[in-house]
Amino acid sequence: MVRTFGDFEFDDQRGCLRSAGQPVSLSGQAVDLLSLLVERPGELVTRDEIQRRLWPDRNVEFDHSLDVIMSRLRATLGDRSPRPRYIETVPRKGYRFIEPVTMKAEARPPKARRRLWRRRFANYAAIAILAAMVAVLFARTRYDKLVPSPRSPRSGTAPRNTQARP
User: Fold this and answer.
1) Contact, 24 vs 8, CB < 8 A?
2) Residues 6+ apart with CB under 8 A from 46
3) How far is residue 31's CA from residue 14's CA, in Å, rounded to a whole number?
């Protein structure tokens, strides 16, 4: 699903963030954090929820790690002012994504995806058939060199029809 907010588009399935059509670099945990926040715009996402989502089985210095990732995410979004545009901090509780988020339909409709899949399949099938033909021709030339053709033992030529003529 592609979600848009401000000048950004975020594809949460691919983990891609774009600004004005250009890709924006984000680390894995920053992608996960942004995904969690934009899934629930306007809602408080508690620090406990973030910890369970980003560090489910790890023992890390959670507060410091979250602060670092949040700082990187805000820097990427250009959200460092005292009056944030995207992410609001709720002291000692969590964070809230405050910019309106809209969902955008997939860039490729299902028919176009099917057409692309068929084209790829046809290309792979053509390559496979061509490779099989080359393999057969190669095997045939090697077989002819290894196995002599049947010839008559006397003259070295193929046997003649020896029936009497009337």
Assistant:
1) yes
2) 93, 94
3) 10
Give pLDDT, residue 14. 84
Give the pLDDT of residue 160: 57
- Cα dihedral angle (41, 45, 50, 51), rounded to 10 degrees? 180
Whether residue 78 is found in the same domain as residue 117: no
- Cβ-based neighbours of 85, under 8 Å, separated by 6 or more: 6, 77, 78, 79, 98, 99
Which residues form the domain of 100? 2-104
Lay out the sheet containing 102-104: strands in order across.
22-24, 16-19, 8-11, 2-5, 102-104
Tell me the mean pLDDT per 10 residues along the chain, length 166.
89 87 87 92 92 78 85 89 88 91 71 77 89 88 73 55 58
Q: Are 120 and 132 in contact (CB under 8 A)?
A: no
Structure tokens at 94: 């969590």
Residue 165 lies in a domain: no
For residues 73 and 30, what is the distance between their CA atoms, to the nearest angstrom? Answer: 6
pLDDT of residue 66: 87
